[in-house]
Amino acid sequence: MKPVVALVGRPNVGKSTLFNRLTKSRDAIVADYAGLTRDRHYGQGRLGRREFIVVDTGGFEPTAETGIYHEMAKQTRQAVAEADVVLFVVDARAGISAQDHEIASYLRRLGKPCLLVANKAEGMHDGLQLADFYELGLGEVHAVSAAHGQGVRSVIEAALDQI
Ligand code: GDP
Ligand code: MG
Predict the structure, then answer these.
(1) How many domains does the chain have?
(2) What does the buried/exposed string (b/e) look like for 30-56 if buried means 16 or more CB atoms within 10 Å of the residue's CB?
(3) 134 CA to middle of ligand 1, Å?
(4) Which Gene Ontology BP annotations are present (predicted)?
């Protein structure tokens, strides 16, 4: 069985861009519209000889009780349940949001291997900008730029090493 890596995080942080980078496909829908990927979406990734499955998800709203956000939350929980390791993606430029805190607390309670990925970090040399994210209580902050491919290999390597 190939390990399964789930990408979770609030809408618009760059999960689908990261998915495309990891799977080198154009399959996941990437758009400037928040939360466009409403469903789970699977792709194949490879790091050297190690193959893995990547699961993209819609934006996560853990407390949503109705409608499309409820469905997205359900899909995300299922994706997380299936995963061997979770990449929790946050937006390095936007900083921490209340939603990020909610997702972090959900993931901490879950106790599954989870890496915190600060995306959109291209051109950010200031460690201070990322220091805030340690507040989420998920350990090391992995700075990446999915759009530019920076840090992506090293974060997937770290993720696969946790399994
Ligand atoms: P998702 O909703 O989390 O799946 O986010 P998307 O992958 O659809 O990306 C949302 C927006 O962020 C799009 O406009 C992307 O082009 C942009 N984006 C994604 N990755 C990066 C990145 O590494 N740097 C920058 N600056 N923008 C990014
Ligand atoms: Mg998406």
Answers:
(1) 1
(2) beeeebebeebbebebeeeeeebbbbb
(3) 22
(4) ribosome biogenesis
Give the residues of the chain that fall short of pLDDT 70: 25-40, 59-61, 126
Atom of ligand 1 nearest to the CA of 13: 3
Q: What is the ipTM of this complex?
A: 0.99
Whole-angstrom distance, CA of residue 23 vs CA of residue 27:
9
What would the pLDDT profile of 55-97 be if each residue is shown by its tens digit?
Answer: 988 766 677 777 777 777 887 888 898 899 999 999 999 999 9
Cα(14) to centroid of ligand 1, in Å? Answer: 4
- Pick the residue whose CA is nearest to atom 15 on ligand 1: 14
